[in-house]
Structures are given as structure tokens and as C-alpha cells.
Amino acid sequence: MAPRPSTYLPRLAAAAARALSVSARPNHPAPYPSPAATAPASSPHAFHAHLASVAPHLPSLLAALSRARAARLPLPPATRALAAAALLRHGRLPDALAHFSLLPDSDPTAPLPAPLCNSLLAALASSTGSLAHARKVLDRMLAGAVELDTVGFGVFIKAVSRKDGGLADVMWLVDVVGHQGSRINRSVAAAMVVDGMCREGRIEEAWHALEELRLHGWKPDFVAYRIVSEGFRAAGRVEEEGKILKQKRKLGVAPRKSEYGECMLALVSNRLVTEAKEMAEAVVLGDFPIDDDVLNVLVGSVSDIDVDGAAMFCKFMMGKGRFPSTEMLVRLCENLCKSKKGEEMWKIFSVLLEKGYCKNAKDYHLVVSFLGKAGKVREAYDVLKEVKRKRLEPDVSSYNALMEALCRDDLLRPAKKLWDEMFTSGCSPNLQTYNILITKFTEMGESEEVQQLFDHMFQKGVAPDVATYTSFISMLCQENKYEQALEIFKKSLAQDAEVASSVLSMFILALCKQGNFKVALTVMCSVPSGVENMNSHIIVLKNLTDIGEVEIAIEHLIWIRNNCSSNFQNIMNELMASLSTSASLQHVTKLIQYLHSHRLVDDADPWMKLMGNVYA
After folding, report:
1. Which residues fall within 8 angstroms of residue 588, CB to CB, at 6 or more apart?
2. Contact yes or no for 150/189 (Cβ under 8 A)
3. I need a surface site. Which of 23, 360, 372, 542 has the fewest CB within 10 A?
4. Backbone phi, then psi, for 446, in 5-degree steps?
5. pTM for this structure?
6. Please, what is the Cα angle at 256 between 255 and 257, to 5 degrees?
7. Where are the PPR repeats (predicted)?
8. Is the pLDDT higher at 28 or at 200?
9. At what angle are helices 186-199 and 150-161 packed, to 10 degrees?
10. How far apart are alpha carbons 32 and 53 in whole angstroms?
């Protein structure tokens, strides 16, 4: 196989990283296309262009295909192939296969596209129970003289090798592929074959495969021989292991770092992370060379499916005196936190710290924050002390990360000590620092501590946000300290009308939960006109209706009509919509009857029709 240009591997690594970043954020889809982009296409050519534009966004892609199917729009082979490739990238394997199956075999103007065929072949081969479908795709590729590549054929032949009697099928495939396999790296494919056999425990068959593949021109390299020798070593068969290692030195060839790197990156780009991980294990455990950009992609992608495997790759990288990229280290640490493997994270950070990974306060913050998330508060505190010893002046965000971890573990005394240390070190707390402590002391019912922190904020010129006010006010309402809660609310009014509006809704809800409608109505009647209060009016009216205080609700509606006439109809509309979730139809009926008698609800209102049906 001819070597690739030197710029190919970095480009492939970037492509794999992009594929990795998309698959890692399933909850953050691309923005929806504009209404013009979702308009039905009038011709096959226009639809092809439209489909290409929406292909990155799965809901829009599915909607476009659904509209084309409903309109019975004929799809040319190029459009059908585009749909299959896009669906495959989104992991919709059955849908991709369905579109691929509709592609014609004997159209000289539109031959089967090799990239799609190889990607689909690999995806089917790696999917449980889909090997038969993969064989049909391979048959079409062979019949149509479609060029096979290392990923497509390699993943397929590895899946075949894992089945009973796999060697016979493997050797038949090797002979059949013939000239259509010029793009296949035969040494890499040979390693994949014996790896599949060894993972199924068929080490004798794997040993035999080494010789058969060599005789057929698919010369195994050192990676393949090591895979088999390790299989015998694990089985305690030391004599056979030694023989295989002698064969390795005599018959094997040195693996090419770039070829394995290209294959692993291509596997990740095709969402075949398990296959990439298994190949990387053979390379890393054998201490064969591997590029940093490949290792970085592996650390990030593998951490999503096997965090221990990703940690192994990271340690291998550090053992060679190199560091993972910040992006991939963050990805790994996030998955270690999800897996509750704080001890493993600390081992990685210990090596990084020892080898001088942290050059500035920002690097140390990454370590402190993740140790805090993982519950390793003592270790995080020790790292923070190291920052101080190096006179790097830790950022407030590092203190916040540790403070949050301490509060989460109910370690309030160390949290207070850390608070004092911040001022001693000349680091001023920010809004997040105050909110962490106020939220925790609110949970503990420590109203005096919360009041002190709240007053301290104003002294230091730190403006509270909605979370600060609502935490404090909710606690005061639970303690029936309504006057104090009202004073806190007045501070939000003086600070900002938008903040006050959000705080008002939470304040009214807290009062209603305590059953103190008198204070709630008093507050609502005293809110300045510049503060948006429609939602708060609806909260108090709905709660009054739910508990049967319909007369009081009616009185408040009259007050709203007399004093907030411009907003009255909007409040009425929202109130009527909210009544569908009311606990008592009887109370709702009483309210509706009053509203109807005062011509605030007409006969066409859905509620009036519902009541008529109930009475009937």
C-alpha cells in the first residue's frame, strides 16, 4: 500500500475529532433550518440540494424524506445515496440500509459509491445480528467492482473471524477480494483477523491464521504476532508463546505507525469506537509507536464507552512524556466523574502534576475543579495549597469549585475555613461564591448565616441574582418570617425590575405554599407598575381557586381590572388556560359562573361548553 502524504494523518485526526464532538453532544442539535429551508422541493434536483442542506440535522433530514415519500417524489440514485450516507452518520443504520437497498446495481452513470459502501459494510458488521446484511452489501460491492478499504473490509473480516469456522471463511474472502482490495492495508487487516479470533478464545486457530495469511500475501506484522502470543501467554501456554515470538522475529514485519493511525481515526469517524479501542489496545499494550493526535482522539472517544480503557491510553501517553490535549482531558474527566472513578482521576492528575503539566493558574483550576466534582476534596485542597506555594494566585473559580464540593459533602466547617482563606489570600468572592454558601445554609435552615452573607454581598458591591433572592426568601417563608421576606423582596425591587419580576413569582408561590394568601395579595397590590407581574397574578388566582377561596379570587380579579386594565385580558386568557389543571371542578365552575355573569367569559368559551355538557 502506497504511503499517504504527510499531511493526511492530521487532517484525518481533525475529521475524527469533529465526528467525536458531534456524537458527544446529542442533547445540543444544530439550529433548525429557516422556514424557507423546510419548504417542499418541487423537483428531484431541487430536493437533492435541499436534502444536502438539512443532512447535518436529523429531525429536518427525516422530515424532508417523509415529505418526499408522501409526495411520491422519485429520488435519483445520487439523492438516495446522499440520504443513506446522512442517515448512517446519524446512527440510523436500518434506515440507511433501506435507502442503500433501493440503489440500482447496474447503472453505469451512477455506480455504487465506495465510501458509502465501505462505511455501511463496517457498520453492519459491527452491529449485533447484522452480519448477514453485511454479507449482502459485500456481495453487491464485489459484483459492482466497488473498491474495498481497510475499515470496511477489516471490520467485516474481523466479525467473520469471530464466528465458528471463521478461518475458512476468512481465507475464502481473502481470495475473493483479489484486485478490489488494493486500498486495503493487508497487514492491518491480518491483525484484525487474529484479534477477533483471540477475543473468542480460539488462539490455535489464530496461530494457524498467521501462517495462512502470510502464504496468501497478507503478511502479518509484529502487532498481529504479539496479539496471538499474548493469547497463549494469558492461557498459561508459555512454550507456544515463545515459538510465536520467534516466528515474529523471523517472519513478521514492522508495523507502520501512520497506517494504524489512519485506520483508528477512520474508525472513530465512522462511529466504530469499540473497533478503534480494540485496535488501539493491541498497539498500546504492545508498546508500538502511535501519534499524539491519534491518542488524543482515542482518549476522548473511548471514554464515552469504556472509561478505564481511555484512562489506560492517557497513562500510556503520559508514560511517553507527553500530555493529552485539554479538550480530551476534560472529556475523560467528565466521564470519570459520571462513572464515580475519582481515585482513577487522582492517579492521572498525580502523574500530570509530577511531570509539570500545570504551567499556570488556569491549568491548576482544571485539576482542582474536577477533583472537587469527583469528591476528592482533600486532594483538591492540597493542589490549591501547591498553587499558593508557587505564588500563582489561584483564581476565584478554583475556590468556588472546592467550596461547592465541600458544601455538597456537608463539610461546612472546612467551607467556612476556606471562606476565611480567600480573604487572607486577597481573593474576593464573587456572586457564585455567595450563592454556593447561601444555597447550602438555606438547605440547613441557617437563616442568620444567610442574612450575614446577604448583607456582606451588599457591603462588597456584589449584586445578588434571582437565585440568591429566591433561596433566601423561600427559607424565610418556610420559617414564617414574612416581614423579613418582604424586606428582601424590596431590595430586589430597588436593584432591577427584571430581577424583581422573577423573584416576585417565586415569592408569591412560596407564600401560597404556606397558605398565607393575605400577605401574597398585599404584595401583589403593592408591586410597582414597571415590574412585570402577570405570572404572579395567575399563581395567586389559581391557588385561591384550588383551595376553594373563589370569592377572594374574584375580589382580586376586580382589583386587577380596576388597577391593571391594560393587562387584564392577558391575565384572563392565561388564567382560563391554567384552570384545566385545577384540583376541583366544583371550584372552577363557581369561578366560571361568576366570570360569565359579569360578561368576562362568553358563551363560546370552551369552559362554558364543558360546563353545559357536565350539567346535561
Report:
1. 545, 579, 582, 607
2. yes
3. 360
4. -90, 75
5. 0.78
6. 110
7. 186-220, 360-394, 395-429, 430-464, 465-499
8. 200
9. 30
10. 11
